[in-house]
Amino acid sequence: MTGAGGPGPDPEPNPVPNPGPDPGPDPGYDPQTDPDVLEELEFWTGPPEDEPGGDGEAGRHDGSDGVDRPEGQPGSSGTLVVVGTPIGNLGDLSPRAEQALRSADVIYCEDTRHSRKLLTHAGITGQALRSLHEHNEVDRIDEVVAAVGRGRTVAVVSDAGLPGVSDPGRQVVAAVAAAGLEVTVVPGPSAVLAALVASGLATDRFCFEGFLPRAGRERRERMEQLAGETRTVVLFEAPGRVAGTLVDLAAVCGDHREVAVARELTKVHEEIWRGSLGGAVMWATARPVRGEVVLVLAGAPEVGTEPVSDEVLAAALAERLEGGERTRGVVDDIAAVFGVPRKRVYELALAARVPPGPGHPPRSG
Questions:
Q1: Are 305 and 284 in contact (CB under 8 A)?
Q2: I need a labelling partner for 195 at 20 to 30 A (CA). Which of 36, 120, 275, 313 fits?
Q3: How many other CB atoms sit within 10 Å of the CB of residue 178?
Q4: What DSSP element (H or E) covers 314?
């Protein structure tokens, strides 16, 4: 299989720009004129006197409908709305998502700067924005629960995709639901499903692993689990770590396991590479991999319910290696055929110490 992709026409020439790391306040920063500060003040204190509430939607931050209901009475609680947003192309914002954002009393955002660009594109102005990211989600839980309990419609968005899927939002959703308050979801674009479908690999059974541990024993153990996973596996990875992760996957799964590398999904430079792990390693190391990346790994071959014994694996190794084949290729093939970790087969090969030439029986340790 060969890689496919490369720059192509973008159906909607409005990719969401990557805001990059927060550079921090500039020397001329004035909190009294910062839009984030002004909008948060507006959320808690109401619009400034010289800024009318507008059309009654964007400027309405009290969450009321003109009826003063005490908390705990029927109809007094609001709703937490989890809104899916585009993963790259702004044209993927659904009409329902747009309406949910337009009618929300407050929108909690992973990055308010990023979300404001999306709202501006949709023609939504005047909404109160508050941050909700990995560093402050726990601190925001009580205020979100309180706001929903007081009858407000609270929307939650991440920079791309659906909040809670490798993005902030899960803990807030759990807390609101645990409080007996309403949680609803406006589905939207998903990098997980987009990459899975575009990969051409099996979609009837799959699992999502998110980001793998970066190093150490936890990473090794997770890799070994993936080697025996019979379902298609979807992974997220940072662009600078793609090549290293593919090398590690090839080491435990074998060079011949199929994989798809999807980058910049829905954006101008969308690219989907499909092939073997061995080929993917060469592809990823030949040039820098840029943009948002999703890896889709084929599942291990289905094997019988009975575990494969070391004796069976050793016999298969001896037969292949005595024929003069290279150890690495034989280990990869046998690991793939029997659906076992490559490390296990390689250790058996080392223990057997089978010479590469024909006619040499294996020597014991």
A1: no
A2: 120
A3: 9
A4: helix 310-321
- Please list, in sequence order, all residues whose beta carbon lies within 8 angstroms of the beta carbon of residue 113, skipping any fewer than 6 positions away: 19, 36
DSSP-derived secondary structure for 51-107: S--TTSSTT--S---S----TTSTT---EEEEE-B-SSBGGG--HHHHHHHHH-SEE
Q: Max CA-CA distance within the chain?
A: 93
pLDDT digits (tens, 9 = 90+) for 183-240: 999 999 999 999 999 999 999 999 999 999 988 889 999 998 999 999 999 999 999 9
The residue whose two tokens read 């575990």 is 307
> What percent of the chain has pLDDT above 70?
75
Phi, psi of 195 (to 5 degrees): -70, -40
pTM of the model: 0.64
Q: Which CATH number fits domain 35-64+75-188: 3.30.980.10, 2.60.40.10, 3.40.1010.10, 3.10.129.10?
A: 3.40.1010.10
